[in-house]
């Protein structure tokens, strides 16, 4: 049986490019999460690019650590991190191996398996909110650090896989400052590296960085 064009796996060469090329090109692509209960498919509508040593907002800006090791390649693998002691966020590694860069998956439309996503996102008021934000996306897809390093280009049995989907035309893609990034990395003039589908209701609202207050 031949898979339809929009359901063919993305090749590794797709990710083996500069992160600023890959990030907007991910919009409209399909991410499939295979679970014991069945698959959940997500159409990506919002992403952010992080460019390693050239990017003060990147986890890899100061070099390799045990936490960010997956960012250094190979491309096409999944980088999952835990933040604020509460949430997981999911990224796709890009660029040549050895040079850390990745795309944060910020939001998407659940196009298959919504009933499974709803069980994980019981606070969502409607299906548009199931994956509206990076932590919500990871929760809806049941993604955690166990999946860190997963090969999303593997055409075999794999818990996460990227498919071709339907790329979004360039005139529908918008860009701007990244959400919640502090300092120079949050400057929209220097790093307008958040990309989203214009007018899509699943895109998360922009929020500037707010410093966390220390408890007295």
What does this structure look like?
The structure is a single chain. The protein has 4 helices and 8 strands; from the N terminus they run ααβββββααβββ. It is of the alpha+beta class and 216 residues long. The chain is globular, with a radius of gyration of 16 Å. The model has no long low-confidence stretch (mean pLDDT 92).
Can I get a quick summary?
Keywords: DNA damage, DNA repair, Glycosidase, Hydrolase. GO terms for molecular function: hydrolase activity, acting on glycosyl bonds. With 216 residues, the chain is α+β, with helices and mostly antiparallel strands.
Mind sketching the topology for me?
Blueprint lengths: L11 H4 L3 H7 L4 E6 L2 E13 L27 E6 L3 E7 L8 E11 L1 H7 L13 H7 L19 E4 L9 E4 L17 E4 L19
InterPro entries: Formyl_transferase-like_C_sf (IPR011034), MPG (IPR003180), MPG_sf (IPR036995)
Pfam families: Pur_DNA_glyco
GO molecular function, one term: hydrolase activity, acting on glycosyl bonds
- Oligomeric organization of the protein chains: single chain
Major sheet summary line: 8 strands, antiparallel
Measured by DSSP, the beta-strand proportion falls in 25-35%
- Compressed to H and E, one letter per element, the order equals HHEEEEEHHEEE
- Overall pLDDT score: 92
Instruction: Work out the helix count.
Output: 4
Intertermini distance: 63 Å
């Amino acid at each position: 049986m031949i898979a339809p064009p929009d359901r063919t796996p993305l090749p590794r060469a797709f990710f083996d490019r500069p992160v600023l090329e890959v990030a907007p090109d991910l919009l409209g692509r399909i991410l499939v999460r295979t679970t014991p209960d069945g698959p959940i498919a997500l159409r990506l509508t919002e992403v952010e690019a992080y460019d390693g040593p050239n990017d003060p907002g990147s986890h890899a800006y100061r070099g390799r650590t045990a936490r960010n090791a997956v960012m250094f390649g190979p491309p096409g693998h999944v980088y999952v991190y835990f933040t604020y002691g509460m949430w997981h966020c999911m990224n796709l590694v890009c660029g040549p191996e050895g040079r850390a860069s990745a795309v944060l998956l910020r939001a998407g439309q659940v196009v298959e398996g919504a009933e499974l996503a709803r069980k994980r996102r019981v606070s969502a008021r409607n299906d548009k909110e199931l994956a509206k934000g990076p932590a919500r996306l990871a929760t809806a897809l049941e993604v955690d650090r166990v999946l860190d390093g997963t090969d999303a280009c593997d055409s075999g049995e794999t818990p996460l896989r990227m498919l071709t989907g339907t790329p979004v035309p360039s005139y529908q893609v918008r860009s701007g400052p990244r959400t919640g990034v502090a300092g120079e990395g949050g400057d929209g003039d220097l790093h307008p590296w958040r990309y989203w589908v214009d007018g899509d209701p699943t895109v998360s609202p922009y929020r500037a960085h707010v410093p966390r207050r220390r408890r007295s």
